Write a sequence for this structure.
């Protein structure tokens, strides 16, 4: 019957009036209404009357705003915030976080950091404001790359409402004074503890938490550990991340200690593949890249962290070479107590480092940088991890396209709404899952406790 409208379809959230970033479309944008139900985007509808077809529980007016997939920090060490309990001292030479730290020293420091016996509730208190700050700036998911107190990190993420992948970080050897392998743990015990931890995790459908196993560095793994890890991965299907190929020196140190390239050791044990991420991996040969591309292994790059920590070898133009080989890249901050980086920071660091290091203006497009920073695109069927970013401020003058708008103009303070798994975490720029002031007070108290015990 003409003029008879069908009954509107119920949905949880309706985002109206926004300009949606969609990097799968040739023009990168679509002015559309976005409907979300049970944590999933169910429609991205450009029809002018699209909003009338839905009966939402809640409508978010995104007029004058961009709608995009949430940012992901693909490499963060959340419990490193406990290091903020130590007073700042100026660097006087090569050091772990001052740059040019040796592989052996970094291994020893990580060994200590990862073994730190910290209670989960203390880690939860210290990490919660970090996750809150990230969420307020538009980050909807983080991958912890190795921390102490994993259970506290998971609790903090659930409390703040941010998606987190985390798990124990494995190694069983360090390097001695002449670069030789020095065992520090029994591979069997390390693997048994990791498997025991994995089995204890209660993950329900729609959970914000995904267990992963991280590996401190192939340099710090015996072949026995890699072999056992491959078996564990095959049995459980768990994702695994490796710090690897950080610098020319760290690669040489690995090959000296183990007698052959790390990529061969990982490939021979069957550890490379789409469920494997190599973290840093800025110092790679063409053959390394060939193997990474052929196995569809993911690579995490941390231009901001590299610049701050003093390793990562962007001078080898790794990002450009990976993109040419079709390797999937994910940006990360490699967070330390020195900074809490938003997706906006990561996108700009990637552009600056890649273009400058590549020596050409076209080595990384805005679209490529945004794709590396976000969790997919806003399309029907995608998980509803979304950000609504205001573009009415004076710093947006003359731009209304989400690609340059988000990559170059927008600031963390422009983030109006953050949605994780369909749940509103930030509303009108305010965290709604917890009081940021309370989180900070609890964290300061926890850091005070750490200070008094160190
Ligand atoms: Zn790291």
């Amino acid at each position: 019957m003409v003029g008879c409208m069908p009954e509107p379809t119920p949905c949880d959230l309706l985002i109206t009036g926004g300009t949606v970033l969609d990097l799968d479309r040739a023009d990168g944008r679509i002015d559309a209404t976005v409907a979300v139900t049970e944590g999933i985007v169910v429609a991205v509808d450009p029809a002018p009357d699209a909003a009338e077809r839905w009966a939402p529980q809640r409508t978010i007016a995104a007029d004058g705003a961009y709608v995009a997939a949430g940012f992901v920090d693909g490499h963060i060490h959340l419990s490193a915030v406990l290091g903020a309990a130590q007073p700042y001292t100026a660097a006087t030479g090569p050091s772990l976080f001052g740059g040019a730290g040796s592989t052996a020293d970094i291994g020893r420091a990580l060994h200590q950091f990862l073994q730190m016996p910290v209670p989960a509730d203390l880690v939860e208190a210290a990490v919660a404001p970090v996750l809150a700050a990230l969420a307020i700036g538009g980050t909807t998911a983080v991958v912890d790359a190795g921390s102490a107190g994993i259970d506290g990190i998971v609790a903090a993420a659930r409390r703040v409402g941010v998606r987190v992948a985390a798990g124990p970080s494995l190694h069983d050897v360090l390097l001695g004074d002449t670069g030789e392998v020095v065992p520090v743990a029994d591979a069997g015990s390390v693997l048994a503890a990791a498997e025991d931890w994995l089995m204890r995790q209660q993950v329900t459908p729609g959970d914000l938490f995904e267990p992963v196993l991280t590996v401190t560095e192939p340099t710090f793994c015996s072949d026995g550990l890699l072999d056992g890890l491959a078996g564990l991965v095959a049995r459980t299907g768990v994702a695994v991340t490796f710090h690897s190929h950080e610098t020319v020196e760290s690669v040489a140190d690995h090959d000296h200690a183990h007698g052959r390239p790390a990529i061969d050791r990982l490939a021979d044990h069957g550890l490379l593949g789409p469920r494997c991420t190599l973290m840093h991996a800025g110092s790679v040969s063409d053959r390394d890249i060939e193997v990474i591309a052929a196995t569809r292994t993911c690579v995490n790059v941390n231009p901001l962290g590299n610049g701050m920590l003093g390793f990562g070898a962007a001078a080898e133009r790794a990002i450009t070479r990976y993109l040419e080989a079709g390797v999937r890249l994910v940006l990360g901050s490699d967070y330390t107590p020195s900074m809490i980086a938003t997706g906006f920071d990561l996108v700009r660091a990637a552009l600056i480092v890649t273009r400058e290091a590549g020596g050409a203006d076209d080595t990384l497009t805005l679209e490529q940088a945004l794709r590396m920073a976000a969790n997919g695109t806003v399309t029907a069927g995608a998980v509803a991890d979304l950000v609504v970013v205001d573009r009415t401020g004076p710093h947006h003058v003359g731009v209304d396209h989400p690609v340059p708008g988000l990559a170059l103009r927008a600031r963390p303070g422009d983030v109006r709404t953050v949605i994780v798994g369909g749940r509103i975490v930030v509303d009108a720029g305010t965290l709604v899952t917890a009081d940021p002031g309370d989180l900070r007070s609890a964290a300061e108290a926890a850091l005070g406790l750490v200070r008094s015990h160190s």
In short: Residues 436-453 form the longest helix (18 residues). The CA atoms of residues 248 and 283 lie 6 Å apart. The pocket of zinc ion is lined by residues 75, 77, 145, 243, 279, 334 (CB under 6 Å).
